[in-house]
Every structure is written in structure tokens, then in C-alpha cells.
Amino acid sequence: MCNYLHIFCYNYFIVKEYERAVVFRLGRIVSKKAKGPGLIIVLPCTDVFARVDLRTVTSNIPLQEILTKDSVTTQVDGVVYYKIHSAVCSVANVTDVHLATNLLAQTTLRNVLGTQSLSQILSGREEIAHNIQSILDNATGKWGIQVARVEIKDVRIPMEMQRAMAAEAEATRDARAQIIAAEGERNASEALKQASMVLVEAPSALQLRYLQTLTTLATEKNSTIVFPLPMNMLDNHKPEH
């Protein structure tokens, strides 16, 4: 009879595969480690326990208004992926581990982006996200948190700045096109110079070039063909007075 009474004095709980239970007995953590998964035994009146979910958590960073290094006001939001790797630390070292991680992610996002210019934010989002991940992972390690990934979702800039950036990009494209055209003209002039030197050395090559030009024009079915003649031919047939 005493054995049956001894069995029924315990409380039994089932901890799922992705959960761990941190059991406190008279205010102290039992065995200094989490229990589970499976069946756990809890003593009534003396034991209390907390369930900890070990699955990856997706935490949205709300839209943050940031002043960049070059004094441009932007709005940036993001997302943090993390999980608890130590159930005991997440319960014993911080009151609300999820709230603390989210608030720290917001602060870190503002601090890191505040040291970057707008062009650096737009072009180096992956590098900035990796930097934020490293800072968060180091800061939340004592809370039992492992930050797996940080992503910057959207970067919003004022409409006036968007127009200015579009005008700057268009001017840059026009300047680049003019440089390319000038380079093409220079290369063409150098090629013509070399060709003229070859033709001067071989006068018969000029006649062959005339014939080749005629052939090209004839294939285009033109009704009028302009055929250049050497000036010395006209000089030889001038009437004598």
C-alpha cells in the first residue's frame, strides 16, 4: 500500500521532441540541465518547470527610421532567424528571451546602419546583414540563443531622394555613352589613318577598294551609283588651248 501511495505522489508530464523542460526544485535548477524529450517526473509542491521550444523562431524587425552617415533619412526593416540552444540559459539568464532578442535586433540594426552611407546600404546589404548577425550572435550567446540568419527586407528612401538618384544615374549613363562614342571615333580615325598609309604605299589597292565598294552598292539595288574617279584622270583629259 505504501508503494502505491509513493507512486501517486509524483506528477508526470510529457515533453515533445522539440521541447525541453527546465525543472526548479526549491528554487534551484535540477541537475543544472534541461530534461526531455519524453516523460519527466515532477514533485508536487516543491518542483516547478518551464517548457522551452527549441525550434527556429522568425522574428520581424519593425520599420526603423535611420539617419545614415551621409545625413539621409531612410526606413529599414528586416527579419531575424534564431533558435535556443541552451534551455537553461534562456530561462535563468533573461526574463523574456524572445522580447530581449527582438529589441536587441532593432537597436543593432539602427546602430550598424547609422555608420553606413546610403550607397553602402543599397549595395552592401548582404555584408551588413552578416555583420548584424555576428553582433547579435555574440550578444545573445549568454541567453542561450544562436542567431542563424539576418535579412534586410526593405530600404525606403524619400521620394525627392529617389528623383535625385534617378537624375544622377541618367547623367552618369549619358556621360558614359559620350565617352564610348568618343573612344569609337578615335579608334575609327586611327584605323582610317593606317588604311590611308597602306593605300599610299600601294596605289592599285585603291582601285580594288573602288571595285569592292561598287559591288557592295550593286547588291543593295540602288537606282543611282556614285562612282569616284581619281583627279589625275581628269587632269590628263583636259583640252589643250
From TrEMBL:
<dbReference type="InterPro" id="IPR001107">
    <property type="entry name" value="Band_7"/>
</dbReference>
<dbReference type="GO" id="GO:0005886">
    <property type="term" value="C:plasma membrane"/>
</dbReference>
<protein>
    <submittedName>
        <fullName>Stomatin-like protein 3</fullName>
    </submittedName>
</protein>
<dbReference type="Pfam" id="PF01145">
    <property type="entry name" value="Band_7"/>
</dbReference>
<comment type="similarity">
    <text>Belongs to the band 7/mec-2 family.</text>
</comment>
<dbReference type="InterPro" id="IPR001972">
    <property type="entry name" value="Stomatin_HflK_fam"/>
</dbReference>
<dbReference type="InterPro" id="IPR043202">
    <property type="entry name" value="Band-7_stomatin-like"/>
</dbReference>
<keyword id="KW-0472">Membrane</keyword>
<feature type="domain" description="Band 7">
    <location>
        <begin position="10"/>
        <end position="169"/>
    </location>
</feature>
<dbReference type="InterPro" id="IPR036013">
    <property type="entry name" value="Band_7/SPFH_dom_sf"/>
</dbReference>
